[in-house]
Write a structure and sequence with these properties.
Number of domains: 2
Low-confidence stretches: none
Strand order of the largest sheet: 1-9-8-7-4-2-3
Bound molecules: pyridoxal-5'-phosphate
Helix content: 25-40%
CATH topology of the largest domain: Aspartate Aminotransferase, domain 2
CATH architecture of the largest domain: 3-Layer(aba) Sandwich
Strand content: 15-25%
Radius of gyration: 26 Å
Shape: elongated
CATH superfamily of the largest domain: Type I PLP-dependent aspartate aminotransferase-like (Major domain)
Mean pLDDT: 94
Length: 333
């Protein structure tokens, strides 16, 4: 690829020493050498963040960290305020709404910064606000918010509202004092001022933020499983597995492949002479149903239907019906 001058506000060009590290032989991630490096990195991040707080690393883009700062801090019905001065502020609003929250939105005309006076009024008229969200730099417009003043307004008008700052583009470029300004959650991404590739994001959390994490009740990863109960998940999956095996064997007349069939997945032989790869790709394109092919030496010879997680009985029925139509219509040979 021809080199080009990268002047985008993330990703940014990497220093030659970082490119060199990326080309170095892989470091095994289950070694003490890696653990030491990882600890060092998290502690160096504190320096950049100007914090003594814990800094978390997430294998998610910046947007993932924005979602985590909503999903892990709040509960249904919580009052929040989002100051938005552009596209990334609007993204915070969308994330709130996706979780069923109804934030008070303080929107400014694009090009302007968040207004501390409006924030003051909003906090006065919304007692009990759990958290205030805003950007450090709003990258869609090039505006830098006065984070220090906004944070001061929150502290002066609320005892415990969390201050959540998206510094995904701003950190490591613009002045930001996590501890001195009393910021509770500060987010950033790897691909901007930190001079790395995209795909990692970070969050510094204050003690107040950790307490909020403990209390938060929005649906989160694993919460659904905990609510259903793992034994019930096993039972539900086993029932769907039994249903699928019976449908594959009896409705479709296929021979099951596994000696001890799993409950999460049914593998079955296709009839002799059927080109499974063609059949499944036609099914994906025309019936809009995706069933997995065999792998390695089994490619084209079998089907693998999953029935785990959110997959429902009616999803499986749709898949079986689509397979049935194709097999009885003289499958692709
Ligand atoms: C202020 C701000 N917030 C959020 C994001 C989203 O980050 P990502 O593209 O890594 O999801 C960006 C990216 O440009 C940003 O500048």
């Amino acid at each position: 690829m021809e080199p080009y001058v990268l002047l985008t506000p993330g990703p940014t060009p990497l220093p030659p020493s970082v490119y060199a590290k990326l080309a170095a032989p892989i470091l095994h991630h289950r070694t003490t050498e890696f653990s030491r490096l990882f600890d060092q990195l998290l502690s160096d991040l504190k320096y950049v963040y100007r914090t003594e707080n814990t800094v978390l690393m997430m294998t998610a883009s910046g947007t993932g960290s924005m979602e985590s700062a909503v999903a892990n801090l709040l509960s249904a019905g919580d009052k929040t305020i989002v100051c938005t001065v552009g596209a990334f502020g609007d993204r915070f609003v969308k994330i709130h709404r996706a979780y069923g929250l109804a934030p008070t939105v303080l929107a400014e005309e694009w090009g302007r910064a968040a207004d501390p006076e409006r924030l003051k009024d909003a906090l006065r008229s919304n007692p009990g606000t759990r958290a205030v969200y805003f950007q450090h730099v709003e990258t869609s417009t090039g505006v830098v918010n006065d984070v220090k003043t906004l944070a001061q307004v929150v502290r002066d008008h609320s005892d415990d509202a969390l201050i959540v700052v998206d510094a995904i583009s701003g950190l490591a470029g613009e002045e930001l004092e996590t501890d001195a300004w009393g910021l509770d959650v500060v987010l950033t991404g790897s691909q901007k001022g930190l001079m790395n590739g995209p795909g990692l994001s970070f969050a510094a959390l204050s003690e107040r933020a950790w307490a909020a994490v403990e209390a938060a009740k929005l649906p989160r990863f694993l919460r659904l499983i905990k609510e259903e109960g793992i034994e019930n998940v096993w039972k539900r999956t086993a029932a769907l597995g039994a249903f699928t095996r019976q449908a594959a064997a009896q409705t479709l007349g296929l021979k099951l492949f596994a000696e001890r069939p799993a409950d999460i997945l049914t593998a079955a032989w296709l009839p002799e002479g059927v080109d499974g790869t063609k059949l499944l790709s036609a099914m994906r394109a025309e019936d809009r149903v995706a069933v997995a092919d065999g792998q390695g030496k089994l490619k084209g010879k079998m089907i693998r239907i999953a029935h785990m997680g959110r997959i429902s009985r009616s999803d499986v029925e749709t898949g079986i019906a689509a397979l049935g139509r194709r097999l009885s219509a003289g499958a692709v040979r």
